[in-house]
Design a protein that fits this description.
It is a single chain. This protein has 2 domains: 2-101, 2-Layer Sandwich (Alpha-Beta Plaits); 117-163, SH3 type barrels (Roll), CATH 2.30.30. It contains 3 helices and 14 strands. It has helices spanning 13-22, 62-69, 90-101, and strands at 2-8, 26-28, 31-37, 42-48, 53-58, 74-77, 79-81, 84-85, 87-88, 117-120, 129-135, 138-145, 150-155, 161-163. Strands 1, 2, 5, 6 and 9 form a 5-stranded antiparallel β-sheet that branches. The longest helix is centred in the middle third of the chain and has 12 residues, at 90-101. The radius of gyration is 19 Å and the shape is globular.
């Protein structure tokens, strides 16, 4: 038995996870609580940690893959090579479960590292391009003015940026 990442239709993560459970297929949907505000109130709501994805634990056989893909909202198993679903290492799933159970606030990062060029894709800085850095343990978006030999930085949320 291996873990596989399953890509699902937009906003179908919970529906697909429930359908897989009814079929007897173990599914893992990491979730985070986010505060959503309406005009009259605010409430914490569960959201998928990785929108559009969940994990399934199944045998690597074509019949099992077809059974998984027949779940409501399922689109495709994630593959590094076309037609061959790629297993997710057990250590990654175990570590993810530990992080989820810790109760700590989690922050999903695009696959970028300190020093990479990034573009802000949301919020008031949308469209700005710069360098990702760290200051006092927090991610900072830097814009360099090379001619002046100066940089300005602002703390940013990781889900507001993308690699550039």
């Amino acid at each position: 038995m291996n873990w596989f990442a399953l890509y699902v239709k937009s906003r179908h993560e919970f529906v697909t996870c429930e359908d897989l459970g009814r079929k007897g297929i173990e599914a893992f949907l990491p979730q985070v609580k986010k505060l959503r505000r309406w005009s009259d109130r605010g409430q914490f709501v569960d959201f998928p940690l990785f929108p559009g994805y969940l994990f399934v634990h199944t045998i690597a056989q074509p019949e099992q893959f077809v059974n998984v893909l027949r779940a409501r909202g399922a689109v495709a198993l994630v593959s590094a090579l076309p037609g061959q679903p790629t297993p997710v290492p057990d250590e990654e799933i175990s570590s993810l479960r530990i992080m989820m159970e810790s109760g700590r606030e989690l922050d999903v990062m695009p696959h970028v590292k300190e020093g990479d060029r990034v573009r802000i894709k949301g919020g008031p800085l949308r469209g700005a391009q710069g360098i990702l850095g760290k200051k006092e343990g927090q991610y900072v978006f830097f814009v360099n003015v090379d001619l002046l030999g100066r940089s300005i930085g602002v703390k940013v949320y990781s889900d507001d940026m993308e690699p550039f």
